[in-house]
């Protein structure tokens, strides 16, 4: 997924790498909050806004799909293929 991030023209930072790593292999369709809680263990300076904005950038670049399930928070799916 990091190579796809580069091809999309998005800057690769340590925080983005950590966010992508948490999302890439997660088939549970995590929320931004779930990813934030995991990422801040290795990146204590990361903010929720950074996680959310990164997920938004990934979605706009077609690298993940936001899933708005009602009720509840939007979940993010790294598998962009129909399933």
Structure characterization notes:
The structure is a single chain. Helix 2 crosses helix 3 and helix 3 crosses helix 4 (48-60). This protein is mainly α. It has a two-stranded antiparallel ribbon. The model has no long low-confidence stretch (mean pLDDT 86). The protein has helices at 2-7, 14-24, 32-42, 48-60, and strands at 65-67, 75-77. 49% of the residues lie in helices and 7% in strands. Strand 1 (65-67) and strand 2 form a beta hairpin. It is built from 4 helices and 2 strands; from the N terminus they run ααααββ. The longest helix is centred in the middle third of the chain and has 13 residues, at 48-60.
Summarize the structure.
The protein has 83 residues and is mainly alpha-helical. It is built from 4 helices and 2 strands, in the order ααααββ.
What is the topology?
Elements: H1 2-7, H2 14-24, H3 32-42, H4 48-60, E1 65-67, E2 75-77
Antiparallel strand pairs: 1-2
Helix pairs in contact: 2-3, 3-4
Q: What's the alpha carbon Rg, rounded to whole Å?
A: 12 Å
Beta strand count: 2
Query: For the largest beta sheet, what order do the strands appear in spatially?
Result: 1-2
Helix content: 40-55%
The largest sheet, given as strand count, sense and whether it forms a barrel, is: 2 strands, antiparallel
What kind of assembly state do the chains in view correspond to?
Answer: single chain
Structural class: mainly alpha
Q: Number of helical segments?
A: 4
Q: Ranges with pLDDT <50 over ≥5 residues?
A: none
Proportion of residues in extended strands: 5-15%
Distance between the termini: 19 Å
Could you state the order of secondary-structure elements as H and E? HHHHEE
Query: How does the overall form come out from the CA principal axes?
Result: globular
Mean pLDDT: 86
